[in-house]
């Protein structure tokens, strides 16, 4: 995997060229936002002066494919005259145009294109894009892409008495409204397309798997958007007050202008939300909308999954890399966990893509049934038991080394799981057990392999369990390209560097090999010391003689 950065026609970042390097290049791709990119260009960069604010088009390429486009909105100079560049994605171009006050569809009541359109949502978005394109330059324009978001009645009503930017119109009147959906940019050879999707049609070929590329997993539940009751508002302030009160289902009840969930109120109290459907003009349709919203979304708990995963494309070009605005499967076989989520955010370190962080979209779960939901219960177990894989690959390790590291980690996990299973099956607490284990640990600074011989003796004394541990821990560490060998509790370590082998005692260097020579602070020879064909040899009478001992 290789990332490149282009500014107009100038190559700013290419890891293969030492002259085309920038510092700290980061890329954030996120659904329903413009996304961002940042990097630092040093004074000696050949294209240092080619970066123009607001005018230059910055592109990020992954293996030759464009995955991001944007414009520079900030270029702060630091002490060394390096430029700290901040880039916003091209959806920000929609902030450059103005949409005058309008009434949709009233202003189009006699428009034949509107009348003939099969999807009024698509027609409205196309109108916004046309108004935007008519005001901006060529590089700021968009083409209408795929629109799969629809309105059930195919009669959306949207209006504004204020002047809005095209972005405010798109975000407030479309994906930020009750229509929902995902606004995505697609980069094609003939232009930049805007897709408006009800759901992602494609799934990433690469799966996130426990023991393979899953490094960490965090599940957060939020009740901020949760409601147990709703007051629906339709077109021109329409309510359901005129409809009959009473039970609508076994759980939902109508009372005046309100519909509430009996079970949600009982479990979580009365939490009321106002929901507007400007496109609904019939009370019965409004009531149906409110019932569906409350049962399918209102009484739900939003669950966000954030994972840190290795993109295996980094080590195997035959594996397709993760792409945003697609689904992704998350699997943990040891925990019987499998779910599919929308991949809505990618945070990429362009020089160290193994540090990619992935945020998966919301999954709404019933508040009442959440305690019985197997997937979330399993996710909590992963976090609670600390069973997620803590594996981050080291910078500049070649592909084969990365595969080996992954295999080591998997083997270690299998050993630990097997040992645990054998322990559970042991019914004789009088037995004497000995376990040899190897652990693989990583921090931001070092990788540590620990070889532990743990001897456990369990005795049953008057019904009380007593454990005795006799443990000796040895390790191999890889720090900044050096290899360190040692033993926990032992003051002496051995460090193997590129051209030097060093012995340390209590952290202080006491001896080292370098350039075919041995250097030591103090030396003691118990028998003799030989130099070439001569040696210092102790005599039988206690004297020390220096004589020739070889040809």
Describe the sheet with the most strands: 13 strands, mixed
Count of alpha and pi helical runs: 7
Shape: elongated
The span between the termini is 60 Å
Mean pLDDT: 77
Radius of gyration: 33 Å
Oligomeric status of the shown chains? single chain
How helix-rich are the residues, as a percent range? Answer: 10-25%
Outline the low-pLDDT stretches. Answer: 363-402, 412-440, 451-472
Number of strands: 36
Count of domains: 5
Strand pairing plus helix content: what structural class?
Answer: alpha+beta
Q: What is the beta-strand fraction? A: 35-45%
Compact summary:
The protein is of the alpha+beta class and 551 residues long. Helices cover 16% and strands 42% of the residues.
Pick out its properties.
5 domains; 13-stranded mixed β-sheet; 551 residues; 7 helices; Phage tail proteins - horseshoe like beta roll fold; 42% strand; 16% helix; single chain; alpha+beta
Task: Compile the SSE list and pairings.
Elements (H helix, E strand, L loop, with lengths): L2 E5 L2 E4 L9 E8 L5 E6 L15 E6 L2 E13 L5 E7 L8 E2 L2 E3 L7 H5 L3 H14 L9 E5 L10 E3 L3 E2 H10 L6 E7 L2 E7 L10 E2 L4 E9 L6 E5 L12 E2 L4 E4 L2 E4 H7 L3 E5 L6 H16 L1 E10 L16 E7 L4 E13 L7 E10 L7 H11 L14 H27 L6 E11 L3 E16 L2 E16 L2 E6 L4 E5 L4 E5 L2 E7 L2 E4 L8 E3 L2 E5 L5 E5 L3
Parallel strand pairs: 10-14, 15-23, 17-21
Antiparallel strand pairs: 1-2, 1-5, 3-4, 3-24, 4-7, 5-6, 6-7, 8-12, 9-11, 13-14, 16-22, 17-20, 18-19, 19-20, 22-25, 23-24, 24-25, 26-27, 27-28, 28-29, 29-30, 30-31, 31-32, 32-33, 34-35, 35-36
Helix pairs in contact: 2-3
């Amino acid at each position: 995997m290789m990332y490149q950065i282009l500014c107009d026609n100038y190559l700013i970042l290419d890891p293969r060229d030492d002259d085309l390097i920038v510092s700290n290049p980061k890329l954030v791709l996120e659904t329903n936002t413009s996304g961002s990119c940042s990097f630092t260009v040093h004074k000696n960069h050949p294209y240092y002066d080619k970066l123009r604010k607001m005018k230059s088009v910055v592109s990020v390429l992954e293996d030759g494919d464009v995955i991001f486009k944007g414009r520079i909105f900030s270029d702060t100079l630091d002490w060394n005259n390096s430029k700290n560049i901040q880039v916003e994605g091209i959806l920000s171009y929609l902030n450059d145009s103005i949409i005058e006050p309008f009434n949709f569809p009233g202003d189009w009541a006699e428009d034949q294109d509107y009348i003939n359109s099969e999807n009024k949502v698509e027609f409205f978005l196309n109108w916004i894009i046309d108004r935007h394109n008519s005001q901006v330059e060529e590089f700021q324009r968009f083409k209408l892409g795929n629109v799969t978001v629809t309105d059930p009645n195919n009669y959306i009503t949207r209006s504004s008495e204020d002047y809005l930017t095209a972005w405010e119109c798109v975000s407030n009147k479309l994906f930020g409204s009750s229509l929902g959906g995902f606004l995505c940019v697609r980069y094609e050879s003939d232009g930049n397309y805007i897709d408006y999707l009800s759901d992602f049609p494609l799934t990433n070929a690469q799966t996130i798997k426990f023991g393979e590329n899953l490094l960490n997993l965090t599940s957060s539940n939020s009740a901020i958007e949760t409601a147990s009751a709703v007051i629906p508002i339709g077109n021109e302030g329409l309510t359901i007050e005129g409809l009959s009160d009473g039970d609508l289902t076994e759980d939902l009840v109508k009372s005046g202008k309100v519909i509430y969930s009996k079970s949600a109120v009982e479990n979580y109290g009365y939490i009321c939300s106002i929901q507007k459907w400007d496109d609904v003009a019939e009370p019965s349709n409004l009531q149906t909308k409110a019932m569906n919203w409350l049962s399918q979304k209102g009484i739900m708990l939003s669950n966000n999954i954030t994972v840190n995963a290795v993109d295996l494309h980094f080590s195997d070009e035959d594996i397709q890399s993760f792409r945003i605005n697609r689904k992704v499967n998350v699997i943990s076989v040891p925990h019987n966990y499998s779910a599919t989520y929308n991949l809505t955010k990618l945070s990429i370190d362009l020089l160290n893509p193994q540090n990619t962080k992935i945020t998966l979209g919301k999954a709404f779960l019933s508040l009442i049934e959440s305690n019985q939901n197997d997937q979330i219960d399993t996710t909590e177990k992963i976090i609670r038991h600390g069973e997620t894989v803590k594996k981050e690959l080291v910078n500049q390790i070649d592909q084969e080394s990365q595969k080996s590291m992954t295999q080591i980690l998997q083997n270690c996990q299998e050993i630990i799981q097997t040992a645990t299973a054998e322990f559970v099956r042991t019914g004789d607490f009088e037995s004497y057990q000995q376990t040899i284990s190897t652990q693989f640990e990583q921090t931001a600074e070092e990788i540590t392999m620990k070889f532990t011989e743990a001897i456990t003796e369990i005795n049953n004394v008057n019904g009380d369990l007593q454990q005795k541990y006799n443990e000796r821990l040895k390790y191999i560490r890889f720090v900044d390209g050096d290899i360190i060998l040692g033993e926990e509790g032992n003051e002496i370590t051995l460090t193997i560097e590129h051209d030097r082998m060093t012995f340390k005692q209590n952290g202080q260097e006491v001896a080292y090999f370098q350039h075919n020579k041995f250097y030591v602070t103090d030396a003691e020879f118990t028998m003799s010391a030989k130099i070439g064909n001569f040696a210092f040899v102790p005599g039988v009478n206690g004297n020390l003689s220096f004589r020739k001992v070889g040809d």
